[in-house]
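User: Please look over both lines:
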Amino acid sequence: MTEPATVALDGTLDRATTTQGLWAALRSRVQFWVSLALLTVLAIIAAVPGVLAGLFGEGDPRACDLTASNRPPTSGHLFGTDVQGCDVLANVLFGARTSLFIGLATTAICLVVAVTLGTLAGYAGGWLDALIARTADVVLGFPFLLGAIIVLNTAPNRSPLLLAAVLAFFSWPTFARLIRSSVREVREREFVQASHALGLSQARVVLTHVLPNSLAPTLAIAATMVGGVIGAEATLTFLGVGLVPPSISWGVQLSTAQSYFQGAPHTVVFPSIFLTVTVISLIMLGDALRDALDPRGRT
């Protein structure tokens, strides 16, 4: 029996929905390799920030000297120091861990909720579909940033995990709608109908046939969303409703340094560069995945 994940609507082999086909479509794209290289470097930074901070300067981001406040880059502090005399490089490197954690955790939580609800809505249909759709409409009715600001303002302790949960709460409806549409399309395919005819249970059909063939469109959006969430965290923190010290993130650095930009521009420039490169890399990866998964985008 032909593997369901490789069969298109017309019964022909669709290699873009297989791991091998996706890799073949991706490896010829310079955009994919550039984004992968940049994200690999960022992942290494997030994994061992203390080691890298020790190699290039002050290893402890909280080892501060007020007498060295807002000093420009020097040999001992390659990125200079902030208003409290803390090493900017160490804070940037340790901030990568927090910012990437929030982006990945938000996307993971969002995907779990969206895949569960979107699959139920698309496969079961009926009143359950209507209930989930109306719930998604209610959540979408709240402006993303405004809703996050209201919720976070009521939180006594804004941790990275709480921030990720709040951002995921206001983000899941878009994913759920996309997955619902994909599931509704896939459930009508011949291999799904054949699985039912063979007597397979509903759960097995969904988990082994419907869901794997419905997730491809979300891959590109998920990669882009990680970058969007990192930017959203920095925005909320900059507005004073996100993370607060002693938490370390790029958003916290930008929020703290905003009043000292004219006299100490390095305190804003270096975190901004890392933030921008990260977001652009994730968007590039998302675009590469989208083109690889779209037959019209493959060459």
In short: The chain has 13 helices and no strands.
